[in-house]
Amino acid sequence: MSLKPVEKPVIHEVGLRDGLQAEKQVIPTATKLAWCEQLIAAQVDVLQIGSFVNPDKMPQMADTDELFRRLNSVPHPGVTLSGLVLNEKGLERALACGVELVCMGVSASDTHSQKNTGMSTAEAQRRIIAIAQAAVKAGKQVQVSVQSAFGCGFEGKIPDERVLGIVRAYLDAGLVNISLADTAGHAHPTQVTRLFGELFKLQPDAKCACHFHDTYGLGMANMYAALALGVRSFETSFGGLGGCPFTKLAAGNVATEDFVHGLQRVGMRGDIQLSVLLGLAREVGTTFGRDLPGRVHKAGALTY
Amino acid sequence: MSLKPVEKPVIHEVGLRDGLQAEKQVIPTATKLAWCEQLIAAQVDVLQIGSFVNPDKMPQMADTDELFRRLNSVPHPGVTLSGLVLNEKGLERALACGVELVCMGVSASDTHSQKNTGMSTAEAQRRIIAIAQAAVKAGKQVQVSVQSAFGCGFEGKIPDERVLGIVRAYLDAGLVNISLADTAGHAHPTQVTRLFGELFKLQPDAKCACHFHDTYGLGMANMYAALALGVRSFETSFGGLGGCPFTKLAAGNVATEDFVHGLQRVGMRGDIQLSVLLGLAREVGTTFGRDLPGRVHKAGALTY
After folding, report:
1. Which of B186, B220, B255 has its CB closest to that of A221?
2. pLDDT value at position A240?
3. Pairing, β A101-107 against β A80-85
4. Can you name the residues that pair with B180 across neighbouring β-strands?
5. In chain B, what residues touch A278 (CB-CB under 8 Å)?
6. Residue B254 DSSP label
7. B216 and A296 in contact by Cβ < 8 A?
8. Contact B249 A300 (CB under 8 A)
9. Whole-angstrom Cα distance, residue A233 to residue A266?
10. Of A125, A265, B56, B294, which sits with the fewest C-beta atoms within 10 Å of its C-beta?
11. Residues of B in contact with A253 (CB under 8 A)
12. If we measure between CA atoms, which residue out of A85, A95, A19 comes closest to residue A52?
């Protein structure tokens, strides 16, 4: 079991997707591109551009394909472009526009799964695994997630065994790049340690990712619990934007710049341009005309 | 060295002092009493009523003596009343009005110490230790703290050795109830683990307390780092109110109700009336007419 933090935690910026899909205001493509340019300049490791969802259902994500085409036409050294795929049609679109890392997930909550996809967890699991395997065959990097892994806004408690059942199915299918997502923000550090511990028992070399919302104030504490256990990739959102439109209640993700600021305080990830991230968080706050939950873009970075 | 969380973390509510001293608005005594009644009904362990500071310098704390007299005249079973003492005159006042736990501190930052008290760290240390010993002789519970223990808004980095030097002086004086306070909010979980680890090496049975501000988003993560190491008492503020008027920049304390909510998620401190704390955080937010930083009073508690 991995019990030591990785040397170089991966920053997977999901604000363009998880952040913007929670906002009513549709951000113009040109603005999104300008934000992407800043995130590329900041040198986040993975940049999630959008979701391949039906544009009628989610107009905020309607330009996802175009964004990928535009960003793939310019150099973005060191930055992997990721996109969220919900179904077979989504994978087709993702392959057509050159997504580098294809992300997809299954909710451990049947209720959440039904509301989000119209399928039960079991049915979603079969389809998502088939889609993930098709993406692997197409030569793509693939990350599979368990959504509502730490609790559900509709169902409440999600037994560990439901989460680990999905994890086992992923591992059996050869999918080892696994994210546990706290979609509603119910996770507690103790639970994070326990659940990732169980995952590492099943597959000691699993490439684990995590995703926490700060609904109950434990987002950052959960990140550090995951980091201490050897989780490798951290999904965060500029300014702490976010919230899931398909769950009952969720605050934003942990803010990218707050997490990076903390890592840099202990000598990690000095290669990321924090000042660019802080400028972006302020700009996004201005765009939405409200105080975003991130802290460091308000306080200013510590420089010693 | 203690490396296991205590079974019953002590909640030391400091909103009436650290929260209200940071606000321009002076809260009427009757309102403060009503808030205290709620905190007593909620059964927090220690309730900090105010600071024995010169009322001309800090009118928000001018009614501290009266509050103690009023609260000491009614039963408050299970709740210890604490007050912050800054000098000899403050101790006289505290003894006269029946403070149960006398708190006092020395800043590890000379600049912060000068601005806050007009004394250097060394001079403040001598005086505070003498005052603490006088309080012990008077039969009081005493907690001594190191302020700016994790960094200073003026000086930046505070070397561990400066903090541990003050800790050693406290221990030599027989003072083992020691709080490390992150006055400016600079602490990082790694630093919390390291510094409390060193403290426990010096005195394995020290009764440690901690105090974190959430200026850079790490407040709660620091609380959990302290909890994991065996720190016993946690200073928090209703609604996450707070900030130090004598440091350059500080956000509020970790919110009492968020910390208690998290503990209750893992079966700890079910004896505290969370719903009362949530109601109070909402009321205080209304009083100040702004959104307080705490999360759970906005989201509502998880009940499973």
Report:
1. B220
2. 96
3. parallel
4. B146, B210
5. none
6. P
7. yes
8. yes
9. 18
10. B56
11. none
12. A85
pLDDT number for residue B116: 87
pLDDT over 90, % of chain B: 92
Mean pLDDT of chain B: 95
* Helices assigned H by DSSP within chain B: 29-42, 64-72, 88-97, 110-117, 121-137, 160-172, 189-202, 219-229, 256-265, 274-288, 296-299
For residues B69 and B84, give the distance between their C-alpha atoms in angstroms, rounded to a whole number. Answer: 15
Calculate mean pLDDT across residues A48-52.
98
Lowest-pLDDT range, A172-181, A237-246, B264-273?
A237-246
Which residues on A lie below 8 Å from B189 (Cβ)? 224
Angle between helix B29-42 and helix B274-288 axes, rounded to 10 deg: 160
The single-letter DSSP state of residue A81 is E
Burial class of residue B73, CB neighbours in 10 A (0-12, 13-18, 19+): exposed
| Options A36, A97, A208, A244, the catalytic residue | A244
Q: What residue ranges define each of the domains in chain A, with the CATH number in brackets? A: 10-299 (3.20.20.70)
> For position A152, what pLDDT does the model report?
95
Average pLDDT over residues A284-291: 92
| C-beta atoms of B214 and A295 within 8 A | yes
How many other β-carbons are positioned within 10 Å of the β-carbon of residue B126? 14
Query: Which of B224, B237, B238, B263 is best to mutate for the A interface (most A CBs within 10 A)?
Result: B224
- Read off the pLDDT of residues B198-238 as tens digits, 9 standing for 90 and up: 999 999 999 999 999 999 999 999 999 999 999 999 999 99
- Answer yes or no: do B151 and A302 touch at CB < 8 A: yes
Please indicate, yes or no, whether the overall pTM of this predicted structure exceeds 0.90: yes
Question: Any alpha helices (H) in chain A, and if so which ranges?
Answer: 29-42, 64-72, 88-97, 110-117, 121-137, 160-172, 189-202, 219-229, 256-265, 274-288, 296-299
Q: Name residue A227's amino acid.
A: L
Q: Any idea what the Cα angle at residue B269 is, between residues A164 and B144, rounded to 5°?
A: 120
In angstroms, rounded to a whole number, what is the distance separating the alpha carbons of residues B275 and B277? 5
| Closest residue, chain B, to A192 (C-alpha) | B266
pLDDT tens sequence across A160-182: 999 999 999 999 999 999 999 99
**Cβ B225 vs Cβ B197: under 8 Å:** no
Interface ipTM above 0.90 = yes
